[in-house]
Design goal:
- This protein is an alpha+beta fold.
- The chain has 9 helices and 5 strands.
- It has a 5-stranded mixed beta barrel with strand order 1-2-3-5-4.
- A hairpin with a 2-residue loop joins β4 (about 45-55) and β5.
- α8 crosses α9 (about 185-195).
- The longest helix is centred in the last third of the chain and has 14 residues, at about 165-175.
- About 30% of the residues are buried.
């Protein structure tokens, strides 16, 4: 597995780039967001990579952040979503926007990506909303432990909230408390105020 490359950028023709590492030119496919951050050719860059191997194709994909790469891997795990669709999603939405759209079950936001129709958007939400790694960054700081997040959401749902509004409320409370994570009871109490 090739997980990270540091080298000299030789070519940049989005979505394709060529990175020279140790005298070898690696062809990588990148989302628009990553390409936009890359300097002009001849500069040194670091990319987080994913090696895609199938009987019909071998390709290397490059990302500016570990979050982008992690989301790309999660997207590929969804039936019917290949590298082209995953890149389209990461090119149309930032990694954080994509993560938020899936967690909020916002199919319309996902459909903004070329080639993503209603059924694919719904499948992404169905397969990823509960599986997305909640340990990924939330506004620059780690998420709470996954169990506390899920328990708070389930408690709000038991009190009559929809899953989407419960998740939005819990995330809103966490954003409002950068000084430290509230206890589960406090998290539920504050989140209830967000939905009423």
């Amino acid at each position: 597995m090739i997980a990270r490359l540091r080298g000299r950028l030789l070519e940049k023709t989005p979505p394709r780039i060529v990175l020279e590492v140790g005298g070898i030119g690696f062809e990588l496919w990148t989302p628009t967001s990553t390409c936009a951050l890359l300097p002009d050719p001849e500069a040194e860059v670091v990319l987080y990579t994913y090696l895609y191997v199938r009987s019909e194709a071998v390709a290397l994909y490059g990302f500016a952040t570990p979050l982008e790469r992690a989301l790309f891997e999660q997207l590929l795990a969804v039936s019917g979503v290949g590298p082209r669709s995953a890149l389209a999603l990461l090119s149309s939405l930032s990694a954080q926007e994509l993560r938020e759209a899936i967690l909020a079950r916002d199919a319309e936001a996902l459909r903004r990506a070329p080639g993503i129709g209603r059924k694919t958007a719904e499948r992404l939400i169905l397969e990823l909303a509960d599986r997305l790694p909640l340990c990924l960054a939330l506004d620059g700081r780690p998420d709470p432990p996954i169990e506390r997040y899920r328990e708070a959401v389930l408690a709000l749902m038991a009190l009559g909230c929809s899953r989407a509004s419960a998740e939005r409320a819990v995330r809103a409370v966490l954003r409002a408390h950068p000084e430290g994570e509230p206890s589960l009871e406090e998290l539920i109490r504050l989140a209830l105020k967000e939905v009423t």
